[in-house]
Amino acid sequence: MQLTGNLLIGARDVGASEGTMKALNPATNQPIEPAFALGGPTEVDRAATLADEAFDAYSHTSLAVRAAFLEHIADNLDRVRETLAARAALETGLPQAQLEDEALKATTQFRQFADVVRKGRFLQLAIDPEQPERQPRPRMDHRLQKIAIGPVAIFGASNFPIAYSVAGGDTASALAAGATVILKAHNAHPGASEIQARAIREAVQACGLPEGVFSMVRGSGNAIGEALVDHPLIKAVTFTGSEQGGMALYRRAQLRTDPIPVFAEMTSVNPTFILPQALAERGAQIGDGFVERMLVNVGQACLKPAILVAIEGTGFEALRHAMSKRVSEAPARTMLTPGIHAAYLSGLCAIENAGARLVAVGSTSTAEVDGRSALFEVDGQRFLAEPLLSQEVFGPSALLVKVRDEAELLRVARSFKGQLSATLHLEQDDLPLARRLLPPLERRTGRIVVNAFAHPQEVCFATVHGGPFPATSDSRFTSVGMTSIERFLRPVAYQGFPDALLPEPLRDGNPLGLPRLVDGH
Ligand code: NAP
């Protein structure tokens, strides 16, 4: 596919209004052709106007039409999978095979959401029929369905150039909900973004949908993101990235005259706790598995396990030895951008300055943005005294926290801020301690994993990829999985409607055969 570098505003290819940029190959530190157009508030306004104009028609498409559209996107993505993975590999330094897998997951996700749309359960239909004879007051006929919230702005993430980017879960779930989408492409992978955006736009056209269903904008600096969050026609925002960026956009959205929800997924260290019997029996094996998972995506992953907590005792030495060995054998690998690499190096310094001891480092390399893996260790007392030690370091590093006893382990568990996940390694004799750990972990995390590492990410109905602040800005929702669609829905009640005026899913006789709660049943 020939990349044009244009912005995709509805059906139009739009050139630069605010200069151009080139992608950087992080492995060579060299720019890659072609030049990509940068836009600003004018392009955001055009895209938002089109998204608003398209909204009524798109959000009222039949479930069958919307599902077919999502499947059409999946088919288009399948056709470009290799090209997309090759370009994404060039722009991110991530292995092409991994990116092909990521593209396959994105395709699967669009098909899964097509199924969700067809089955219609997400509409959460409820009917409370009229009760004219009820005493002391009659009840009107009440019917409820969920509808899309409005045009949505989605910020593509840097670290998964497909799964959390243009054709990622945010876009799939928003389109499934019936929302129109403006995607703000991440400048770390503009070519991969264009390939995905063209696949979506072609599906919009092939399915005869209004052009404003999908647009992709790109800009430099904060101006374009701010214009999106400020735009009065935008009704919700999703974001994956730094806590600083996510919170800046969140606060901005709350200062609008009409505040809107910002679903930001930001930061998590995903603490892992090894309980005593598991440590004694499998310390080395867990240490090895932990580091293997920590190194995935060169540690640039929201579910990277960054902190491992264990009680000093039998198995601890084996654990430390296995972790050190794995870390020291790991080759330095290309990180996503020079900025992320620089942030990683300063994160390592911060950990060391906060009192952690460097236990092992991976091999070096001469390439400028290669991330060298690192393992630090600290005792529980120091960890509890220094909040900096529980901050995320985005890259291939981990911190081993050695605690004295169960009481200190529980104190450490209670010291964490909100997390996407926590993991427990346990055996039968560890169950009483695990039961005591559960309440503090449930309060602080969106998912708790036992005897495994939270990988690979499943996209299913029971997935929770969310958690209390600062993991996300809204702990009531997940950004991955089939229920992520709920971020883009709101309830509307129809009272006393004649049947012919009701939305089809709510009509008498259930013409679409959808699941409905009738009079509480
Ligand atoms: P980022 O700096 O938070 O940026 C993400 C997106 O938001 C980019 O498109 C960025 O635009 C935009 N943005 C950020 N702050 C903004 C603001 N104040 N106003 C308007 N737009 C804003 O994240 P990143 O570029 O992916 O990486 C930087 C750091 O984020 C990493 O070092 C890492 O610490 C963290 N991160 C964490 C995760 C995670 O899953 N936990 C994932 C990715 C990144 P510009 O690019 O134009 O600035």
Automatic annotation (TrEMBL):
Enzyme class, broadest EC rank:
oxidoreductase
Q: What is its EC number?
A: 1.2.1.4
Lineage, top ranks: Bacteria, Pseudomonadati, Pseudomonadota, Gammaproteobacteria, Pseudomonadales
Q: What is this protein called?
A: NADP-dependent aldehyde dehydrogenase
Per UniProt, the keywords (alphabetical) are:
Oxidoreductase
